[in-house]
Design brief:
- The strands form three sheets. Strands 5-4-6-13-7 form a five-stranded mixed β-sheet. It has a five-stranded mixed β-sheet with strand order 10-9-11-8-12.
- Among the domains are: 104 residues, Orthogonal Bundle (Arc Repressor Mutant, subunit A); 92 residues, D-Maltodextrin-Binding Protein, domain 2 (3-Layer(aba) Sandwich), CATH 3.40.190.10.
- The relative contact order is 0.12.
- Helix content is 42%, strand content 18%.
- The chain has 13 helices and 13 strands.
- One of its GO terms (molecular function) is DNA-binding transcription factor activity.
- Belongs to the LysR transcriptional regulatory family.
- Keywords: DNA-binding, Transcription, Transcription regulation.
- This is LysR substrate binding domain protein.
Length: 351
């Protein structure tokens, strides 16, 4: 008759016996990640030597780690058999909790190391003017709906003197615009080239009898009346350069009121080309070039301390994909005169 294997044949793995006061002095803060990894490796491999190979450490290192674990849990945890080691009942109960703890830690590490656009709920905070919002948001939101449906764009207005601090502290992720005083700590990516044009309703152009080749300069028709966008420096510089301030009948804080003014009044306004394209495609209006109108670059700015942020990197790549001026052909296209749509072209003496 076979005799059952005596419990004494399962021997604890030898290790130095802890001092009695050492057991009471150990707390959670004494447990490091390597101990949990050691426990899991021995539990999976059922062999100290193979656990050492799995971890890439020496066998004495694994034995030392097991000794520290025994102090923490006050249990032998693993006992020696003829083929390796077997977990004690306490170790079997601990195994699921250790796996869960390691999985939680891995999730924390993965959150900082990767960005999953299809599941993200991240809020990206962008500083931009209403001009920049008109230029970028329609396309950006359409693409986000397809690629990152849970992502949110929050637009904030930050006074230009405060932009440096807002970007450095992460209050905003990006500033979209043209800022000559941007800090040297900022990175930038060129998104598009802009220049100003003259925009007016088709009705106003007909009353002024403007030809298709009209160019705004200091010799503008005497009955041309302007509305200025005081918050847009490039527009105001052209008004000053051509001595057109006496023609200005109103100064606006932004571009929001322009459609209503073009619809109900015969005034003209100097606006960035992107704004003009938007209105020309939607309303009965015409656009004309301006003498001496210089192009400027609209950039995305961010602080270099966020260079490695995965979400930051993803949105930067998306902005570059959608708006990067890229090739010389794209550059030339932005600088080319805006031809009014056939339905918006003003009537002239040749009509």
């Amino acid at each position: 008759m076979n005799r059952p294997v005596a419990a004494a044949t399962l021997e604890p793995i030898p290790c130095a016996a802890p001092a009695a006061d050492a057991i009471d002095s150990l707390r959670v803060q004494d447990l490091d990640l390597n101990l949990l990894k050691t426990f899991r490796a021995v539990y999976v491999e059922r062999h100290v030597g193979r656990a050492a190979l799995r971890l890439g450490v020496t066998q004495p290192s694994v034995s030392h780690g097991l000794g520290r674990l025994r102090l923490m849990f006050r249990d032998a945890l693993f006992v020696r058999t003829g083929t390796g080691v077997e977990p004690t009942p306490r170790a079997r109960r601990l195994a699921a909790s250790v796996d869960k703890a390691l999985a939680i830690l891995q999730d924390v590490l993965d959150e900082g190391a990767r960005f999953l656009p299809d599941t993200t709920q991240r809020v990206f905070r962008l500083h931009m003017s209403d001009f920049a919002a008109s230029a970028f948001l329609p396309t950006l939101l359409q693409v986000l709906d397809a690629r990152a449906p849970g992502a949110v764009i929050e637009t904030l207005h930050v006074d230009e003197p405060q932009l440096n601090v807002a970007l450095e502290t992460g209050r905003i992720d990006f500033a979209l615009g043209h800022y000559s005083d941007a800090s040297s700590h900022f990175q930038r990516a060129a998104l598009l080239r802009e220049s100003c044009v003259l925009l007016m309703s088709r009705r106003a152009a007909a009353r002024l009898a403007l030809r298709d080749d009209f160019v705004l300069d200091a010799n503008a028709p005497p009955n041309l009346r302007l509305v200025a966008v005081a918050s847009h420096p490039q527009s105001m510089q052209l008004v000053d350069r051509h001595g057109l301030m006496p023609r200005v009948r109103a100064a606006l804080p932004g571009f929001m009121a322009i459609p209503a003014i073009l619809r109900d009044c015969d005034h003209a306004v100097i606006v960035p080309r992107t704004i003009a394209r938007t209105f020309a495609a939607r309303d009965a209006c015409a656009t004309y070039p301006i003498a001496g109108a210089q192009a400027w670059t609209v950039n995305a700015y961010w602080h270099r301390r966020f260079d490695a942020d995965p979400g930051h990197r993803w949105l930067r790549a998306l902005l570059s994909e959608l708006f990067d001026i890229g090739t010389r052909e794209a550059f030339d296209a932005w600088l080319a005169p805006v031809a009014p749509p056939a339905s918006c072209a003003p009537r002239t003496d040749r009509d």
